[in-house]
Amino acid sequence: MAAALLGGVLPLLATLFLLAPPPAAAASLTEVTGFGNNPSNLRMYEYVPNNVAARPAVLVAVHYCTGSGPAFYSGTEFASLADRYGFIVIYPSATRSGACFDVSSPQALRHDGGSDPVGIVSMVRYAQQRHNADPNRVYVTGASSGAMMTNVLLGDYPDVFKAGAAFAGVPFGCFATTDGSGWNTACANGTITKTPQAWGDLARGAYPGYQGARPRMQLWHGTADNTLRYPNFGEEIKQWTNVLGVSQTPAFTDHPQSSWTRTRYGATGNQAPVEAISVQGTGHSLPAAGMAARAITFFGLDAG
After folding, report:
1. Which fold does the domain 27-299 belong to in CATH?
2. Of 135, 133, 104, 108, nearest in space to 119 by CA
3. Confidence at 181, pLDDT banded by 50, 70, 90
4. First and final CA of the chain: distance in angstroms?
5. Any catalytic annotation for residue 285?
6. Choice among 104, 144, 145, 278 that is catalytic
7. pLDDT at 23 over 80
8. Residue 53, C-beta contacts closer than 8 angstroms, at least 6 positions apart
9. Which residue in 17, 84, 86, 272 has its CB near the most CB atoms, within 10 A?
10. What residue ranges do the domains of the chain occupy?
11. Methyltransferase as a keyword (predicted)?
12. Are strands 29-32 and 43-47 parallel, antiparallel or unpaired?
């Protein structure tokens, strides 16, 4: 009797096994070509998690000099956070010598002026069309050259980006040059200082006539940064508090980790207009472990 039952069950189990769908393949980084206007020939990589939301947010994650989109994908936590929360990550890749992004030319510092910012915004618009992404939830983050590009994109395209998180960057316009060079030594050394109003005017001047809402900004900097020196952190705070029309006096200060001093401007909560985190004793090596998750909280991408 038992043998007869077993003889009937085994073929049924085998049939069910054959009919069962294979396990879902893990999401992977994919290169996209032909994504739109791209005057500086950037390369586009995107990460779309298996559990992508029906109307997903988009995060642009911009690499450092000598880096690449794939390197920033593998070296940061943004993709694993996308797995958790269902948003899309775009990783642009610079193609010029040194793999730095253009944050200094007159074209890069103007709305629809040309160069890298135009190509990055084309990537965002591609994602919105291809994946039904939510235009009201587009964010940008980056490290070093990518942090400078974060500042540039928030100045050039306040109509596209809702917030940014810059890890070891400089203010919008600080790296400006007119001689064709992509490097501004005075800015890198932290010797360019301006009033909050002057910094704010620079950012606002990127898109003349724009009267809409301005994106929020989260800023990170190590006190021992010898590449883009620490005074740039204070200049960024001046700029973005002025752009967002809030006091330079912190509304809130705490220490989420012993080496971090976090200040919030204009409000006290997780989505304050400006949030700034100073990291004691750290050099030009951000974002470190755990920092990406803080940026995701600032964006509100972990709120469902």
Report:
1. Rossmann fold (3.40.50)
2. 108
3. confident
4. 54
5. no
6. 144
7. no
8. 86, 87
9. 272
10. 27-299
11. no
12. antiparallel
